[in-house]
């Protein structure tokens, strides 16, 4: 199976596949024709002696400096080398693969003036498993993700100091290309700028964050339903009539998913007619309202990022029909920055409401369960500090959720005076997702422990499946034992999507 790029716009499902699997890509023949037209337009500009930014001028504040035709190849190579100044840890290989695919998608719009062989090299590198080392830090999310994408371009030109992961080892780019049977590209006019300019790094980071948030969201509905049953809480707040009266689509869909997850639970049925509780705490009762609002935002973010993934975001843009070359600002990643900030809020809230449910479960005054969910409180501390860990992570995420887009700092001698900060705004989603996976892990363990206290009664079929998934890696914790490995094991169940698959498709992103 392969994914064709350039025939139609990439879908959310295709982007998810590109981010999570080593799926080969094919460039559509029609897109190759568009590339030829754009490259021919740039070649005519050089032949006619026209002065056009990015083709035969300097860059940024140096845009008014005309470059001799004999130096155009050197100009593009110098641009790549001078801009390859990223710092920090390497981006994850799944992120880099997605960056490469998004750059292909952008270039195959045919308005970047790049030759087909240049784009084909990028596709061949992706298909043969060459993953350039791209440092995580160094982009402000405007004028394109220049530093990260320069490291990608440096690999394409075979720069020996640029490292590439190939066949389970880091190799200099020239060696990796040679071993893969590929020839480094000699950049033609405008090609270096087209490769560097664009929002592909910030967009890839935001998409990876979205896909992780999607998994956490679905997992949190499972842990939330399980906690409700462990509390002997009510599913009446999930009644469809309540949510139809408000009309918020995410809320309606979330309530439907929770009803399905709790359906036919003997624990729930055991107290349906004689429950002494009037109302459950908000973190249980208001799950459809809170998680539904998150779902609505995530769906909006998904729409924004799908559009951006298919966009032409370099500068200037070449229009072969008219021969015009227009300078603009599609490289400004403001849409991605807003999307990343919204995702950060979503991820923080998933963790926040989960931590509150755990806090309720361990409190005997609120839950009716043994203190800290241990059979001999006092001698045993049970979930006392596991909840503290969840609280620490939830509070850390509150700090990380501060919007990045409201910040800006002038660059390039003031020429680039307003920037989006989309790249680190999207990159921080990974740390936040790590935190929430562990918060949910604590809730999963606590909810499972609560259900064990109601035996021989069982929960609903899907929630018992969730408990079975947990028990394959973590035992019950009736008395104290080394706790960290239980949290890690439960987090791996969540990160692996084993809970998310139990969640109904009512809450799909699109």
UniProtKB/TrEMBL annotation:
Pfam name, any one: Lyase_aromatic
Catalytic activity line of the entry: L-histidine = trans-urocanate + NH4(+)
Domain of life according to the entry: Bacteria
Post-translational modification as stated in the protein's UniProt record: Contains an active site 4-methylidene-imidazol-5-one (MIO), which is formed autocatalytically by cyclization and dehydration of residues Ala-Ser-Gly.
PROSITE patterns reported for this sequence: PAL_HISTIDASE
Family: Belongs to the PAL/histidase family.
Gene Ontology MF terms in the entry: histidine ammonia-lyase activity
Classification via HAMAP family: His_ammonia_lyase (MF_00229)
Location of cross-link 5-imidazolinone (Ala-Gly): 142-144
Gene3D superfamilies listed in its UniProt record: Fumarase/aspartase (Central domain) (1.20.200.10), Fumarase/aspartase (N-terminal domain) (1.10.275.10)
Subcellular location: Cytoplasm
Alphabetical keyword list: Cytoplasm, Histidine metabolism, Lyase
InterPro entries: Aromatic_Lyase, Fumarase/histidase_N, HutH, L-Aspartase-like, Phe/His_NH3-lyase_AS
Swiss-Prot/TrEMBL GO biological process terms: L-histidine catabolic process to glutamate and formamide; L-histidine catabolic process to glutamate and formate
Source organism (scientific name): Brevundimonas abyssalis TAR-001
Pathway linked to the protein: Amino-acid degradation; L-histidine degradation into L-glutamate; N-formimidoyl-L-glutamate from L-histidine: step 1/3
Source organism phylogeny: Bacteria, Pseudomonadati, Pseudomonadota, Alphaproteobacteria, Caulobacterales
Enzyme Commission number(s) from the entry: 4.3.1.3
Entry protein name: Histidine ammonia-lyase
Gene: hutH
2,3-didehydroalanine (Ser) modified-residue sites: 143
Recorded GO CC terms: cytoplasm
Keyword Cell inner membrane among UniProt keywords: no
């Amino acid at each position: 199976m392969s994914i064709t790029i350039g025939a139609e716009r990439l879908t959310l499902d295709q982007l998810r596949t590109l981010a999570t699997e080593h799926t080969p890509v094919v460039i559509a023949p029609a897109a190759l024709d568009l590339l030829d037209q754009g490259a021919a337009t740039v070649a005519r500009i050089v032949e006619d002696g026209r002065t056009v930014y990015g083709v035969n001028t300097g860059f940024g504040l140096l845009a008014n400096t005309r470059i001799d035709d004999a130096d155009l190849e050197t100009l593009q190579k110098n641009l790549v080398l001078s801009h390859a100044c990223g710092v920090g840890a390497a981006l994850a290989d799944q992120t880099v693969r997605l960056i490469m695919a998004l750059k292909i998608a952008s270039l195959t719009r045919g308005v970047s003036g790049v030759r087909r062989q240049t784009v084909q090299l990028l596709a061949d590198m992706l298909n043969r498993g060459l993953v350039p080392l791209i440092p995580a830090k160094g982009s402000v999310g405007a004028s394109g993700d220049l530093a990260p994408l320069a490291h990608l371009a440096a690999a394409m030109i075979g720069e020996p100091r640029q490292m590439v992961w190939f066949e389970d080892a880091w190799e200099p780019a020239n060696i990796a290309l040679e071993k893969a049977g590929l020839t480094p590209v000699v950049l033609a006019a405008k090609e270096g700028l087209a490769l560097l300019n664009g929002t592909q790094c910030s967009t890839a980071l935001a998409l990876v964050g979205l896909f992780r948030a999607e998994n956490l969201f679905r997992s949190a509905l499972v842990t939330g339903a399980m906690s409700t049953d462990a509390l002997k809480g009510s599913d009446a707040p999930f009644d469809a009539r309540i949510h139809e009266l408000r009309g918020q689509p995410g809320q309606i869909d979330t309530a439907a998913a929770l009803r399905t997850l709790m359906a036919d639970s003997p624990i729930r049925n055991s107290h349906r007619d004689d429950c002494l509780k009037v109302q459950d705490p908000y973190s249980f009762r208001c799950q459809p309202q809170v998680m539904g609002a998150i779902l609505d935002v995530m769906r909006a973010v998904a729409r924004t990022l799908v559009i951006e993934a298919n966009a032409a975001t370099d500068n200037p843009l070449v229009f072969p029909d008219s021969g015009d070359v227009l300078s603009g600002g599609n490289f400004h990643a403001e849409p991605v920055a807003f999307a990343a900030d919204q995702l950060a809020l979503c991820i923080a809230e998933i963790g926040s409401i989960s931590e509150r449910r755990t806090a309720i479960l361990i409190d005997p005054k609120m839950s009716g369960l043994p203190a800290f969910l241990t059979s001999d409180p006092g001698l045993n501390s049970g979930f006392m500090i596991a909840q503290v860990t969840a609280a620490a992570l939830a509070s850390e995420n509150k700090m990380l959720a501060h919007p990045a887009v409201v910040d800006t700092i002038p660059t390039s001698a003031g020429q680039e005076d307003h920037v989006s900060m989309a790249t680190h705004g999207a990159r921080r989603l990974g740390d936040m997702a790590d935190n929430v996976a562990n918060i949910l892990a604590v809730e999963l363990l606590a909810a499972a422990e609560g259900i064990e206290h109601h035996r021989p009664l069982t929960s609903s079929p899907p929630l018992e499946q969730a408990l079975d998934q947990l028990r394959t890696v973590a035992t019950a914790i009736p008395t104290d034992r080394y706790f960290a490995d239980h949290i890690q094991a439960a987090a791996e169940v969540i990160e692996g999507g084993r809970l998310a698959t139990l969640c109904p498709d009512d809450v799909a992103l699109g």
